[in-house]
Design a protein that fits this description.
The complex is a heterodimer. Chain A is an alpha/beta fold. Chain A is about 30% helix and about 25% strand. In chain A, the strands form 3 sheets. Chain A has a 6-stranded mixed beta sheet, with helices on both faces. Chain B is an all-alpha fold. Chain B is globular and about 55 Å long. Chain B is built from 14 helices and no strands. Classes of the chains: A alpha/beta, B mainly alpha. The interface between A and B is large, with 79 and 59 residues.
C-alpha cells in the first residue's frame, strides 16, 4: 500500500546550523508517530515542512502522493498553544468551523451537514458544553480540545499535532490521545505527534522519531527509547529507565541546566 | 430652525454620506480590532492627511492625495504584515515622520487654512453631490471586498497559524485588508476628520465585541453603532451648532461605555467560575533549553 507520507533524504539547515540530514521515513495509513527530542532540534520545523510552509534545505516530501502544499487542505493541524484575546468575538464553534470552510471565499452558509459535522466534532472532544462561550475566556485545556475538534472536523488524510497535551491535566491528556488514537484506527489517518514527553502516548505509539542535536533515530519505542540509542544520539552517557511502565530519560546534555549556563559548552 | 434644516438638500447629502461611511467603517472595524491593528488605523489616517496636504501644495485635489497617501501606507503595512510590539513601534516611527512632512506641506501651502482644518476635523455638512457619489463608489468597493474575503479574513485575523496551514494566503490577505482599511479611512476622514477616524473605525467595533461573541452579529452591531453615532451626530449639530465630529465621537464613546456596563453586568450575573489558565509546565523527562541544544556539538549520521 502506498504510504500517506513519504520523506526522503530530508535536510534542514538554518544558516550554518544543520538540524538534520538524510532524514527518511514513510507513514502508513493509521500509523502513530511520536516526534521527540529537546528544543531547537526542528520538531516544529518538521511539521511546517509537512504542511508546505517551510522548504527543506534538501530532500523530498510527499503527502498523499503530492507535494505538501497541494495537500494542505487535507491535513488537520493542531498548533502549539497560544492564548486568544479575551474580548475576541469568537465562539468555540466558530473556531471549529474554520477547520471546515475557513479557507473558502465569501461569507458562506453552513448547510445542515456542515452543522452536523461541527456538532459531532464538538461532541467528540467533549466541548459541546462550552461551544458557545467566547474562546478567549476558556482555559488552555478547553481551547486545546477545540483545536483538536477543528483539526478533525474536515476528515483529514493526515493529522499533525504540535505539543497538543501542553496545559492539559492527566484526564484530558487521556481524552485527547484517545481521540487521536480512535480517529486513526477508524479513518486510517496517520498521526504525527510532536511531544516532549512520550509517556502519555506510550501505549498507542507505533514508532518514535527522536531528534537530537544533529542526529536522529526512528523506530519502535522499544528500539529507540533505550540507553544505547539515546547515548549514541547524544554522544554521551544517557540512561533510559523504565519505572512503573513510564520512561524516564536521565543524563541528556540539556538535562543539566545550571551546569550548562555556567560553562556555556557541552562536555 | 432645526426642522427647517431637515428639509435642506445639503443635510440630506450629509446624512447619506454619513450612512455610507458608517457602514463600511463599522464593518471593517471588527477585523481591525481582531488583528490588534487599531494603531495602524491612526497611522493610515494621519498619513492620508500628509497625502492630502501634499496634494494641496502641488495643486491637486486633496481627497485624491489623501486616498493615495492612505493606500501607500496601507500597502506598506500590509506587506510588512508585522505582529504585536514590533508593528507598534515601526508604525510609530513611520507615522511621526509622515506627520512631520504633513506639517511642512501645510506650511508651504498658501491656500485657505480651512481646507486643512476640514481634513483634520471633518466637514460632513460640506459634502457635495459629486463627493457623495465618489464616497458611495469607494464604499461599494470596500463592501464587496469584505464580503468576498469574509471567511479567510476572519480566519487569518484570529488564528493565523492554522489559517496558513490550511492554505489561506496570509500575506495577500494582509495586503488586502490594509488596502480596504486605507480606502475606509480615506472615507471616514471626510466625515470626522483625520484625528477622529478611530471613533468610527475602532470604537463601534470595540463596543460591539463586548455585546456579542458571534462574529457575524458583532459586525452588524458595529455597523449599527457607527450609524447611530454618525447620523445622531449630524442631527445634533443641526440643533446645536457645535462641530459634528464632537457629537459623533461623543455618541460613539457613549455606546462604548454602555457596552462595557452591559458586559460587566452580564459577567456578574453569570459569574461562572472559569478554570484558571495553567502555565506551561516543564516535563520531568527532557527539560531542555535552546541554549544548551545549540551548544551541543553537531554530529551527522
Amino acid at each position: 500500500m502506498t504510504p500517506v507520507v513519504s520523506v526522503r533524504e530530508l535536510e534542514l539547515a538554518f544558516g550554518e546550523r544543520r538540524l538534520w540530514d538524510g532524514l527518511s521515513f514513510d507513514l502508513a495509513r493509521g500509523e502513530f508517530l511520536a516526534v521527540l527530542g529537546p528544543n531547537g532540534t526542528g520538531k516544529t520545523s518538521l511539521l511546517r515542512i509537512l504542511l508546505g510552509l517551510l522548504e527543506p534545505t534538501a530532500g523530498t516530501v510527499e503527502v498523499a502522493g503530492r507535494a505538501p502544499k497541494a495537500s494542505r487542505a487535507r491535513v488537520g493541524y493542531v498548533p502549539q498553544q497560544h492564548a486568544f484575546d479575551r474580548d475576541l468575538p469568537l465562539r468555540g464553534r466558530d473556531l471549529v468551523r474554520f477547520g471546515l470552510d475557513g479557507n473558502r471565499w465569501g461569507i458562506g452558509r453552513l448547510g445542515r451537514e456542515g452543522h452536523a459535522r461541527i456538532e459531532r466534532a464538538l461532541d467528540d472532544v467533549g466541548a459541546t458544553g462550552y461551544a458557545d462561550a467566547p474562546v478567549g475566556r476558556l482555559s488552555g485545556g478547553e481551547q486545546q480540545r477545540l483545536r483538536v475538534a477543528q483539526a478533525l472536523v474536515s476528515e483529514p488524510k493526515l493529522l499533525l499535532a504540535d505539543e497538543p497535551l501542553l496545559s492539559l491535566d492527566l484526564s484530558y491528556q487521556a481524552v485527547i490521545t484517545g481521540l487521536f488514537d480512535e480517529h486513526r484506527r477508524r479513518a486510517g489517518t496517520p498521526v504525527v505527534f510532536v511531544t516532549h514527553d512520550v509517556n502519555p502516548v506510550l501505549s498507542i505509539v507505533d514508532r518514535v522519531l527522536y531528534l537530537a542535536p544533529g542526529r536522529w533515530a526512528i523506530g519502535t519505542p522499544d528500539t529507540v527509547m533505550t540507553s544505547e540509542t539515546l547515548s549514541e544520539l547524544y554522544g554521551t552517557e544517557v540512561d533510559v529507565l523504565r519505572v512503573r511502565g513510564r520512561i524516564v530519560v536521565v543524563g541528556t546534555p540539556d538535562d543539566q541546566h545550571v551546569h550548562h549556563i555556567d560553562d556555556g559548552h557541552g562536555h | 430652525m432645526f426642522v427647517e434644516l431637515l428639509g435642506e438638500h445639503f443635510v440630506h447629502t450629509a446624512l447619506l454620506a454619513g450612512a455610507v461611511v458608517a457602514v463600511i467603517s463599522g464593518a471593517i472595524g471588527i477585523f481591525v480590532v481582531a488583528r490588534g491593528a487599531s494603531f495602524a488605523v491612526h497611522a493610515i489616517s494621519e498619513l492620508g492627511f500628509t497625502g492630502a496636504a501634499g496634494a494641496l501644495v502641488l495643486g491637486f485635489d486633496a481627497v485624491v492625495g489623501m486616498i493615495v497617501g492612505s493606500l501607500a501606507v496601507g500597502l506598506v503595512l500590509g506587506l510588512l504584515s508585522l505582529r504585536g510590539r514590533e508593528r507598534d513601534s515601526s508604525i510609530g516611527a513611520v507615522l511621526s515622520f509622515g506627520l512631520g512632512v504633513g506639517v511642512l506641506f501645510l506650511f508651504l501651502y498658501q491656500g485657505y487654512a480651512t481646507e486643512a482644518t476640514n481634513l483634520l476635523f471633518g466637514s460632513i455638512v460640506g459634502v457635495s453631490d459629486a463627493q457623495l457619489r465618489n464616497l458611495t463608489i469607494v464604499a461599494l468597493i470596500v463592501a464587496v471586498g469584505l464580503i468576498a474575503l469574509y471567511r479567510p479574513l476572519l480566519f487569518s485575523s484570529v488564528d493565523p497559524d492554522v489559517a496558513a496551514a490550511r492554505g489561506v494566503p496570509l500575506r495577500a490577505l494582509s495586503v488586502a485588508i490594509f488596502l480596504l482599511l486605507a480606502l475606509t479611512t480615506a472615507e471616514a476622514i471626510q466625515v470626522v476628520g483625520v484625528l477622529l477616524v478611530l471613533t468610527l473605525v475602532i470604537t463601534p467595533a470595540a463596543a460591539a465585541q463586548r455585546l456579542t461573541v458571534r462574529p457575524g452579529l458583532a459586525i452588524v452591531l458595529s455597523i449599527a453603532i457607527a450609524l447611530v453615532a454618525t447620523e445622531g451626530g449630524i442631527l445634533l449639530s443641526l440643533a446645536q451648532p457645535w462641530p459634528t465630529s464632537f457629537f459623533i465621537s461623543s455618541i460613539s464613546f457613549a455606546a462604548y461605555l454602555l457596552a462595557r456596563i452591559v458586559e460587566a453586568a452580564r459577567d456578574r450575573r453569570r459569574s461562572q467560575p472559569v478554570e484558571p489558565r495553567r502555565r506551561r509546565t516543564a516535563s520531568t523527562e527532557a527539560p531542555t533549553s535552546e541554549a544548551s541544544a545549540a551548544a551541543s556539538t553537531a554530529i551527522n549520521e
